[in-house]
Write a structure and sequence with these properties.
76 residues; mainly alpha; 0% strand; elongated
């Protein structure tokens, strides 16, 4: 019985340690995800630059809308 109780004592994880462990794992996953996104965007940009791909080539561009105030109808 003494051997079994000492085995269970080795398996005990303090709740505070669990919180720190989960926080650390979350931070590592977030850092890996952010790094993967940055690397993907740089890789995509380099591929487009290498193959001379313009993503705006077939897009229609509207003219800028200019709003001016018309003061000719106002009475002074």
């Amino acid at each position: 019985m003494n051997l079994l109780s000492s085995f269970y004592q080795l398996l005990y994880i303090d709740p505070a340690a669990t919180t720190v462990l989960l926080t650390s794992i979350t931070a590592i996953v977030a850092a890996i995800g952010a790094s993967a996104i940055i690397i993907w965007r740089k890789l995509k940009k380099n591929v487009k630059k290498t193959f001379h791909i313009d993503e705006n080539a077939n897009k229609e561009v509207e003219e800028d809308l200019v709003i001016t105030e018309d003061n000719s109808n106002k009475e002074d």
